[in-house]
Prior knowledge:
The complex is a heterodimer. Chain A is mainly α.
Amino acid sequence: MNPIKQYLFILLLATSTAASAQFGNFGDLLKKGLDATKKVTEASKDITEGEEINMGEGIAAMILGASPLHEDKNLQRYVNRVGRWVASQSTRPDLPWAFGVIDTPTVNAFALPGGKVFVSIGLLKRLNNEAELAGVLAHEVAHVMQKHQVKAIQSARTSGALQGVAQSAASERIARTGAGQNALTSSLSNAAAGEAIEFVKNGAFLRPLDKALEYEADRIGAVLAARAGYDPYGLVSAIQILSNLRSEDAGVSLLMSTHPTPNDRLTELEKFAATLDKYASQQQVEDRFAKIMAAVK
Amino acid sequence: MTTDQLSHKLGVIKRIKRIIFLISVAAISTQLTQLSYAQEILTTNRATDLRAEADDNAPSLQALSAQTNVTLIQRKGAWTKVKSDTQTGWIKMMHLRGAVTVEAASAQTKSGGFLSGVNRFLGGNQANNQRAQSATLGIRGLSPEELKTAAPDAKQLAAMNANAVSKSDAERFAKEIPLFKTSVADPLNADRGSR
């Protein structure tokens, strides 16, 4: 098995169980068994930073297979510079951060484990300045900094513990979900790699994260952008732009239907208005952004 | 004052007026450039004031009730310059929301969109699907069609990695503006102790 296929397989196992855990109210179950909590803690040590980086590489290769990079090298370099400057203000400044603009009109930005971040040209074209871009990238950097995806995968590695908890807690729903997951993994253990890719093709990467994690990424994102010298309202502005997209716009429907609404995100961010206001007079950087975007074909 | 002096002064005033006019034209042109990318309608989400300046203490030009539509002109820090039905002024950005609702998109998925199909594939039941819809995604919006045609692309990945820049490169880039590294505390201290 080549490394990419190997990591895709690991991810496949991880995402299937992560999703099961999410559906089964993982948090409540944990409280019901200290032993299980201990197992979870031990299991969570398993994913090293090196593994995390390699997983990100594997998923990135798949994403790029679906949606290639935009061909404008200046744009790619520009987004990498903004992103790396923001990431340098995070608690993980030395990850091999790499930012990619994918050539799709859909409105997207997303982060992968290990410091790979994607933003679509469709989203970039709706932004007005570098502070807004920095805000979007900072939200994604925050997901990586807080290891939101890694934690989801880590929780999947506790699948054995999970099923034990399910039984002791007599949770019918979890037991049923767990059984489904076993059937799924055993059916994949033969021609694992090929089936893993098939699994990706079926959209299994669309794993749910808790709403609270999106709000956390917004809050920390605003902080990172401010640390980088940008007006943190750039992120607020970007979310406000999202709040005005029509559902019929290309690629927006899925984003809108699977996220906290942009308006809810703004309401959550407003709780930290005192912090935002303190740095609101920092840079927006309109000219450099406009120059780069004007040259994009 | 002689007639000559008077006409000289008038000439100077004329020239100044012309310069002011040209500056105004330039300013309006800039404004138009801004307008060209930001013709958005926003809605007030509470009763608020349209103010003369981007300042809480600036005089109120107009009291706006909740759910009033305004046209976006410009954003500046915590403030948004907008045009109401009668006036142009500034409103706190947090007092504005998108005028477009996303209910249609949500309804579409609730009736069995792509995501609910994935949930079924993962063994989730109907109740779980509804739960998942209130959750969020790590990767979102990449269309099912694009994912279905996916194959790992090592060449593209190498290209992406080649575009990455070093920390010192990013620092030089920040100095161009300049963007100053600022000490900003996370209001909830989520990153305390890990720095």
